Amino acid sequence: MTDSTTIAPSNSLKMLRAMAGIGVLCGLLIVLTYEGTLPRIELLRAQALEEAIFKVVPGITQMQAYTYKNNAFVPAEETDLDVVYAGYDSEGAFKGIAIVATGQGYADVIKIIYGYDPEKEQVVGFYVLESKETPGLGDKIEKDPTFLENFKGLDVTLNADKTALKNQVITVKKGTKTNAWEVDGISGATISSRAIGEILKQSTSEWVPLIYQNKTAFKSRGNE
Fold this sequence. Notes:
Blueprint: H1 11-56, E1 62-69, E2 72-75, E3 83-88, E4 94-104, E5 109-117, E6 122-130, H2 140-143, H3 145-149, E7 154-155, E8 170-172, E9 182-184, H4 190-213
Parallel strand pairs: 8-9
Antiparallel strand pairs: 1-2, 1-3, 3-4, 4-5, 5-6, 6-7
């Protein structure tokens, strides 16, 4: 005699299948949403970067991206990663370079952009592109007027043979700044303001000698 009795799936198996199905559906929706919004996100980032470039290099009306290849600065292509931005005034005269830099802050990675004037050998502008520092404390690096004054003439003079900074950028305790290469810190946001000094120290040590030694590459655009 054949037993025709069938055993129904348990409730736990049904629940497991349902959860797996929901998980797959949610994952698919996340991927589709990300792919659908990515172009918009990238466009907004590009617009924010362009606006920041014009903020950190005073007096410019146009810019050109450059990358460093084969011991020379050349106009950058879309696939280039290490890029700096040369700024020019309305007559095409070269005014300075905008440089993007990143480093670890208190809460997460901080992304900044700063302007460098090779003729003055100074950082002449500063802007925070991305930050998750603590609201009301660490985010003062973005809006504290006294702190931002540091970057309107921060000294990054090179040594005699122009191969390295004469004095590296450093953040000091608020109110103790005595030298032009020092960043006057923020009370209550010590870690965040020190992070900015460290980011600038690393970035200027790398980029400033290269840019200064090759500054003729950023020729006037007046006749283009």
